[in-house]
Design brief:
- The structure holds 2 protein chains of 2 kinds.
- By secondary structure, chain A is α/β, with parallel strands linked by helices.
- Chain A folds into 4 domains: 164 residues, no CATH class; 98 residues, Helix Hairpins (Orthogonal Bundle), CATH 1.10.287.70; 118 residues, NAD(P)-binding Rossmann-like Domain (Rossmann fold); 89 residues, Alpha-Beta Plaits, CATH 3.30.70.1450.
- Helices cover 60% and strands 10% of the residues of chain A.
- In chain A, helix 1 crosses helix 5 and helix 3 packs antiparallel against helix 8.
- Helix content of chain B is 43%, strand content 22%.
- Chain B has 9 helices and 10 strands.
- A 6-stranded parallel sheet of chain B has the order 3-2-1-4-5-6, sandwiched between helices.
- The mean pLDDT of chain B is 87.
- Classes of the chains: A alpha/beta, B alpha/beta.
Chain lengths: 526, 237
């Protein structure tokens, strides 16, 4: 069997093996995918290894360490680092795909399979990884374990650098700095030029006159210390020419420090939004059972107030960057995006979303957002406000489950406010959770204490609550409207069934005590 | 409602005005619509509103004439523009001390201004809608209950009942009567005149002594409430 045939067979074998793919994907996720749930634990484990090994190496400088610690550092830590390096090398790309691409091309063009070209491509792609900055750090971080060469201990620094891989903050910092590569490079070159010129000048003027300057290295050292405005004072010029140069490079130094500071500050201010957005998106990925509110309008503010009182997680999507900025300052999660565009939802896992609320002040906008959301998820609960009653049908067609209209709501209350203002005030107080009066619901779960209990056995007076009614579900009914039934003020002999929902009214303290009592009783009941 | 056919003067036939007019008409009220815009009034006439008036809201003279001509006691400020509602409230309260003003607003800030202007009752429409939204997504059974009570079942009503002097409730402690069992109604709260005009929920746990002129807020089936009111009247000494 020729070598090329062996390569092709091997490539096909790997490509057709779900197990191989599964294992490789697992390691890729573990090492590179921030959204993978186990990566967090792997990162913490690696950070622990790095910190503990650095502590051991520092301790070793002055005092001999115990055998256990020595073996831990040399075998365990280094072993893990080595395995991690090899795994990263492996998951960096798919060699078999390179082989298969070449094979397909050779079949298509009816030419000979070029083994040399394939090997070259494979080596090139793997070298690309080996010479990437983080891979170099990974490799150098393994070296301090070789105790025979003391010089290798300097690579302990690389173990510290390795932390970069596992800390988002540090990674972000370097990403931001990298955006100003050209400016920083220019500054560095200018600084090197000034140090070179001033160092040589000082050496020429002060060698043999100044006892502290014995070589060109001393002069360069002095130049760097002076230009950085540190000025140790261990080398000071003694000639007029030397002092003149000092004065000039002090002025240049002040300028350069300001220049460097302004570059870094501007990099951060330019990238701040991006960094903040990334952080917000990262936090969003961790949320479960949360609401998405599109449009930070007056109604959204009122709704959010209620959610915050109930400690329910939510995110706000709004086009206005100023609004988003102020929300972030208040500690709320917000993203500056146009919710009608795909990019607004591309990183959202809709299985974790409780409901999407479309609360912008434009029906047309809400319809667009509804269509956009529906393109991502058919199931997620969509609720929209409407301005114009004519939009009701359009919103429903766009996939909205529930439409809310402040105009219709005001209509419901109009007669009531004229006839029963105190009753309406009471309803409003309950619905707004004002004066601590609340309405809440308690589900009768299967096997719980409430199941098969008549209403008389529920100690409502003890907890000072009122049972407003019971919602009973009839999933067997075909018509949606008939699938739930509200039984108002059920009589004492009314028996609760599993999946019924009790609607109760009372003060917050009464309701929470009653809920605790139900949970405790259910536990005893089990 | 027997006492309906009451005349209501409604200002503003915009998005809110339209809904409120429909709601009041179906509730048996006689609604008179005022607006500054011809387009709005054209829409009102298309919707078969008979009594429409084109009046500028800063024309005090015309407003006064209108009020005297028809003898309105209640006005509804239902403009979509909150500022107009505040201005109207101030105008009417300045011109007629005894008129009852009901107004709409969309924010807490405007609600405060309307109360300062003298509005008797204010509906914060945004808050009501936001609350409804919250219950729909977070506590759907509660939303179902309120929808049922307020919208779906016309037979279940909220009612304020003034305790007649000498009735069987006069002088009784609220906890001594099991309203749910005996009358099949729920007493939600009480305005105990001894303690002022404040509404207190019964679930607060205070055993109020009911006196004549106190107001009970009850919820129940229409016939049960009517029966209860009848029993109250019958028991007067």
């Amino acid at each position: 069997m020729s070598f090329s045939k062996f390569l092709i067979d091997l490539a096909f074998l790997l490509d057709n093996s779900p197990r191989y793919k599964k294992i490789k994907l697992f390691f890729w996720n573990l090492l590179n995918n921030d959204d993978y749930k186990y990566k967090k634990y792997f990162d913490i484990f690696m950070i622990f290894l790095i910190i503990s090994s650095v502590i051991i190496l520092i301790e070793e400088v002055t005092t001999p360490i115990s055998k256990i610690l020595y073996y831990y550092d040399v075998y365990v830590v280094t072993g893990v680092f080595l395995v991690e390096y090899i795994l990263r090398f492996w998951v960096y790309n798919d060699i078999h795909k390179i082989i298969l691409d070449e094979y397909e091309e050779s079949l298509f063009l009816d030419k000979k399979f070029d083994t040399k070209k394939v090997i070259k491509q494979i080596v090139k792609s793997k070298l690309e990884y080996i010479f990437s900055p983080l891979a170099i750090i990974d490799l150098l971080a393994i070296l301090p374990s070789y105790r025979e060469l003391r010089i290798l201990r300097v690579f302990i620094l690389f173990r510290v650098f390795k932390l970069l891989r596992y800390s988002h903050n540090l990674t972000h910092f370097f990403q931001v700095i990298a955006t100003k590569k050209i400016e920083l490079y220019t500054l560095f070159m200018l600084m090197a030029f000034v140090i070179l010129v001033s160092g040589i000048s000082l050496y020429v003027f002060e060698d043999r006159i100044n006892p502290n300057i014995n070589s060109l290295f001393d002069a360069f050292y002095w130049a760097l210390v002076t230009i950085s405005t540190v000025g140790f004072g261990d080398i000071t010029p003694v000639t007029h020419e030397g002092r003149s140069i000092t004065m000039i490079i002090i002025l240049i130094g002040v300028g350069m420090i300001s220049f460097a500071t302004s570059i870094i500050v501007s990099a951060f201010s330019e990238q701040l939004e991006q960094v903040r957005n990334n952080r917000v998106r990262h936090t969003i990925r961790k949320l479960t059972d949360f609401y998405i509110i599109c449009g930070y309008t007056n109604m959204a503010q009122l709704f959010i107030k209620r959610l915050e009182a109930e400690k329910q997680p939510f995110i706000v999507i709004d086009q206005d960057k100023k609004i988003v900025e102020s929300l972030l300052l208040e500690g709320k999660l917000a993203v500056a995006e146009d919710a009608t565009k795909k990019s607004a939802f591309k990183n959202i896992d809709f299985d974790k979303v409780k409901a999407v609320l479309l609360l912008t002040n434009s029906d047309m906008h809400n319809i667009y957002i509804a269509l956009n959301v529906r393109s991502f998820s058919k199931k997620v609960y969509l609720l929209s406000r409407t301005i114009d009653n004519n939009s009701y049908k359009k919103l429903k067609l766009a996939g909205v489950d529930e439409v809310i209209s402040p105009y219709l709501t005001s209509g419901y209350f109009a007669s009531l406010i004229l006839e029963q203002p105190i009753a309406l005030q009471a309803i409003n107080d309950i619905l707004t959770a004002r004066k601590n009066a609340l309405c809440d619901q308690i589900e009768v779960t299967e096997g719980s204490f409430l199941e098969n209990k008549p209403i008389r056995d529920i100690e409502v007076n003890r907890f000072k609550i009122l049972i407003l009614g019971v919602v009973r579900f009839h999933p067997e009914k075909k018509i949606k409207y008939l699938q739930s039934e509200f039984i108002f003020n059920p009589q004492e002999d009314f028996v609760l069934r599993a999946n019924d929902v009790l609607v109760i009214m009372g003060y917050s303290i009464s309701i929470s005590s009653f809920k605790s009592y139900i949970i405790e009783s259910s536990l005893k009941h089990v | 409602m027997s006492e309906k056919q009451e005349k209501i003067l409604l200002f503003g036939y915009g998005r809110y005005g339209e809904q409120i007019t429909q709601s009041l008409l179906s509730g048996g009220y006689e609604v008179y619509v005022v607006d500054e815009s011809k387009e709005a009034l054209k829409r009102a006439s298309i919707h078969n509103i008979e009594n429409i008036f084109l009046i500028d809201i800063d024309d005090d003279e015309k407003l006064t004439d209108l009020l005297f001509d028809y003898g309105f006691e209640k006005i509804f400020c239902a403009y979509d523009d909150e500022e107009k509602n505040i201005y109207l409230t101030i105008t009417f309260k300045a011109l007629f001390h005894n008129i009852q003003v009901f107004a709409l607003c969309e924010s807490k800030e405007s609600e405060r201004k309307l109360h300062l202007a003298g509005a008797d009752r204010v509906i914060d429409t945004m808050e009501a809608a936001a609350n409804r939204m919250f219950f729909l997504v977070e506590k759907p059974a509660v939303a179902e209950a309120f929808d049922h009570i307020l919208l779906k079942d016309p037979n279940i009503i909220f009612k304020e009942i003034v305790v007649p002097k000498g009735s069987f409730l006069d002088g009784v402690n609220i906890k001594d009567i099991n309203f749910s069992k005996e009358y099949d109604i729920l007493v939600i709260g009480i305005v105990d005149k001894e303690l002022g005009d404040h509404f207190t929920f019964v679930t607060r746990g205070i055993n109020h002594k009911i006196d004549a002129e106190d107001i009970l807020v009850v919820i129940g089936k229409r016939e049960n409430i009517e029966r209860f009111e009848h029993t109250l009247e019958e028991s007067k000494v």
